[in-house]
Predict the 3D structure of the following.
Amino acid sequence: MVRKIVVSLLIAGMATGLAACGERPSTRALTGGAIGAGTGAAVGAATGGSAGTGALIGGAVGAAGGALTAPR
């Protein structure tokens, strides 16, 4: 169980680094949302929670983070 959580956190950390990719805020919001949804689903499933709920929360947070970050 601990290994699943550690792996999930590592994946989430790497995915967060990609959230600011893109020149326009809309592009960053889309990529951030997709990365967040995938990461949220993986973390939700790995921790015994709901993958769907994790995807919804992760997608929303990723889209907001992508839209609010600067391209550089």
DSSP finds three helices and no strands in the chain. The chain has one domain: 2-8+22-68. The mean pLDDT is 80. The two ends are 37 Å apart (CA to CA).
